[in-house]
Amino acid sequence: xxLLNRLQFPALVGTMFILIVLSSCEEDLTxxxxxxxxxxxxxxxxEVYDVFAYNNNINAVQTNKLSVYQLGVFNDPIYGKTxxxxxSQIQLSTENPTFGINTQxxxxxxxxxxxxxxxxxxxxxxxxxLYIPYLTKTSSEDTDGDGVIDAYDKVIDADNDNDNDGRTNxxxxxxxxxxxxxxxxxxxLDGFNDVGDKEEIIANNFAVRVELDSIYGDRxxxxxxxxxxxxxxxxxxxxxxxxxxxxxxxxxxEFSPAFTGEELANEEETVSDFQILIPQDDNTSTTDVDExxxxxxxxxxxxxxxxxxxxQNNILDKEGSTELISQANFKEYIRGxxxxxxxxxxxxxxxxxxSQGNITMTYTYxxxxxxxxxxxxxDKIEEKEKDFIFSFVGTDFSGNAVNTFxxxxxxxxxxxxxxxxxQDAEKIYLKGGAGAYAxxxxxxxxxxxxxxxxIKENNWIINEANLVFYVDQTASGNSRNIKPPRLxxxxxxxxxxxxxxxxxxxxxxxxxxxxxxxxxxxxESDSGDKxxxxxxxxxxxIVDEDENPTLGLMIxxxxxxSRALNAQVxxxxxxxxLAPTISPxxxxxxxxxxxxxxxxxxxxxxxxxxxxx
Length: 613
Prior knowledge:
It is a single chain. The chain is mainly beta. The chain contains eight helices and 34 strands. Strands 1, 4, 24, 25, 26, 27, 28, 29, 30, 31, 32 and 34 form a twelve-stranded antiparallel β-sheet that branches. Strands 6, 7, 13, 14, 18 and 22 form a six-stranded antiparallel β-sheet that branches. The chain has a five-stranded antiparallel β-sheet with strand order 8-21-20-9-17. The longest helix is centred in the N-terminal third of the chain and has 11 residues, at 12-22. The protein is globular, with a radius of gyration of 30 Å.
């Protein structure tokens, strides 16, 4: 059985606990249902209760101010095809920027200015690149410290020679050569490559291979990234609230073709898990170093050139104008970009970190070199180069970008189930994005507390409580489609997760190292896939409080994301957790109203308890 980052907490833990208590006659025991008791006989048992599940169709979900954005096409064997597009503002890194050295006002007065350094600088676009990184796995490890992460290391041993060039990974790490490239080796550590033209070795000047996350579909497929100017003004604040509340944009809002202008790029790309190397220009002022042999590095992602003329006309030539004087004026003027992806074969959908994306505009300008003298006879006009950076959205959710999801119509069976939200479900349909989720009622359909009171009155000590969700393997024709890695249960009254952080166990700070007692991870096996959600603390809390709120069930790519966003569900406005919005994945689970042939997969609440007699 394959188990993703899962810790086991067997039901026998409760029994072991009781044996420890019995071995110490001096200790008292506080039960859930009564006062302190001592030297009392105990019995352990298991009880199973019904669980009622109701499907809900998410017609639209708020998709601005997200942490991660989808781009491309994903074809789910159950729910059909989804296309994701991005429409985003772009922001100035500096308001009212000065390009070159002097302001445009000074340049305009150059003919009468007595300063020899004030000239018409003739700023000219050299190149413009859009860059948006892919997501990477923060849990990637290099266990043996040899410079190759475990995912790409043939043997987890620093003395392993990954590229068979005669030098171990650790030796290559020390020499600053690439342990994954047999043409990069410096065995005698003389600073020159032993292979080919014996070029000088610049230490660590190669692209490191990184483990990517959330690239759905065919990673080998080529695709075209299409960038157009957006003519739609994305407001930051809602005019209907007198601009006191943030504007909300939803997944159903389509900006293309009605609100797109000239095409700025249409570039073919493929996914690479290697860092992007950016060659540097030689700095003529440093005669002892040739910077052109060194590379700047970017994390793997989409990096494509944009149209130079557009940025010349709309940015450089606007220096000193009202259009660039403030961020607000610039957003109103430039509006933004619309980004889409078309696959050239099999579908592909990467998730992108838009907050780390940018546009780098490189331009040249004329500058006077006075050679540090007052004598103007040796002055020279030189061409210099600068970068100006535009951002999309900030990590603090400044700026605005919208993810549009264009969903293919669901199959009739799925639609029928989603359009019957008050019917106890035989199958539970869950899908990320603008997809589907379920409401869960424990014990009975009315959410009454009779059975909770019964547990309390029977003086049960609840050792473990589980919900086990079995995957319907037949829903996708038995195909081994990509299944969501984890399920998320939450209280629908306040959108909070039902795990208790105070009693949780975590291995590290990654999404799937959090809340391990709660679990909810996908377990894959030949006998059937399932998710086990451990809700012991939650059951204890509702017994204490005599409450039984309705729960929500969704898929999650990151249980650590706790924000909630607005959504339209079955025609009503509700708040839902943000995390499922940033995933295209879906699944089908068995509910509590199953047919006789699937009775062993029925959704039930299992409670392992100890009773004081």
